[in-house]
Amino acid sequence: MAKEYPRIDITVDAVVFGYKPDEGISVLLIKRKKDPFKGTWAIPGGFVEVDESLEHAVSRELKEETGIEVNYLEQLYTFGEPKRDPRKRIVSVAYYALVKPDIYEVHAADDAEGAEWFNIEKLPKLAFDHKYILEMAIFRLRNKISYEPVGFELLDKHFPFSELHKLYETLYGKEIDRRNFKKKFLSLGILKELKEKNSGGKGRPGLLYQFDKDKYFQLKKKGIVFEI
Amino acid sequence: MAKEYPRIDITVDAVVFGYKPDEGISVLLIKRKKDPFKGTWAIPGGFVEVDESLEHAVSRELKEETGIEVNYLEQLYTFGEPKRDPRKRIVSVAYYALVKPDIYEVHAADDAEGAEWFNIEKLPKLAFDHKYILEMAIFRLRNKISYEPVGFELLDKHFPFSELHKLYETLYGKEIDRRNFKKKFLSLGILKELKEKNSGGKGRPGLLYQFDKDKYFQLKKKGIVFEI
DNA sequence: GCAAAAGTGTTCCTTTTACACCCATGC
DNA sequence: GCATGGGTGTAAAAGGAACACTTTTGC
Question: Which end of chain A has less Cβ packing within 10 Å, N or C?
């Protein structure tokens, strides 16, 4: 009576974003060690084990393949076209992740022959439908940053205002008036101004700031909307 | 060498929304015919066949279980907690769908003992984690309607302006000034005003309107943003 | 002619944009 | 002392919110 369903395998993939003010937005890719697409760059990922959550699978695979631990992880979309993997039917739950600059170091391992950061403007050819996944992730990040304070996940804990500003300019792909941006962002009341100043670099050193997570959640509970 | 992965089953579920001005937003649920949760209301859905796309699986299951055909379908989120199904590990790709009032008629079939519309304010107890899925779908719909013109998928092809207005009031859960709303919406330039007037009903009959999809996509291509 | 809903315009206020000058530091 | 980037305020413009009166229909 029960219909016999041929099995479908399930994997997770993760688009990991990093940011450096002078290099822009980068994505962590691995070079595949096995066929199909052996030697081609791909988004890290792998099979989900039967007793682990999807998020756990993502974190585990990222650690195994690239040695990285991310500080922000969110589901992006599930890709399930019958022919997206040439071997067999695979449904992949894609995530995107953000990492802070101080854990930028990666080391290839496991199924990866290499692991490297690529600027999102200069991507190599990608395996499977990973180009499409990556594009969707970039689109999502651009959007997300406009209505949720996720940008901080790409910055150091303490950062000069100019880095936040540059991050938004980079993601929006256009110039944003420095003064108006600062006015608006500060008026949200979710940044702590620190006593420290930014050392090194040219010009007048600016004060450092820190994201005030508690304040943000207080305001959010009150129904105040982040929008930038 | 290859690790043996115990299999995970994959299903699709669909939160189907309908709207009637005097009844508000409703959701289509089915009464389960089998265990687990036999006799409990649930979101329609089922297993994905190995050679069909996820969207196809959703449409097929909806047709089988409830007899309905939807005119808008979008992926919501993938739920994959190890214990979300008491029998075995199941990852479910959830969708949400919108139907127009004229195909509101449903007939239970297949695995469903019953299929009924429930107002989203008066939901019964639901099987599995379906309450959570439904809440997420409602949240998503509320949001979506603010930045994409999906509201029309819940209205008849020709509708009086008041219905569009009421739909937004219902979803936003608050009053919206009728005149400002109309001014803003019409200024988007994506509505065709028809010669026909709304027949029946109380008060002065209003003109009927129609969503101008072509115009919308033209404007979208130009970078003009829908926001209401 | 009364109740109900639709059509329409103006004013006020808030938010956004545009823009310029001075200040602190490194070399 | 000069180049570089940081800090700050104001005025004009645009967009959003508040609001009232007239018109068309059914009963």
Answer: N
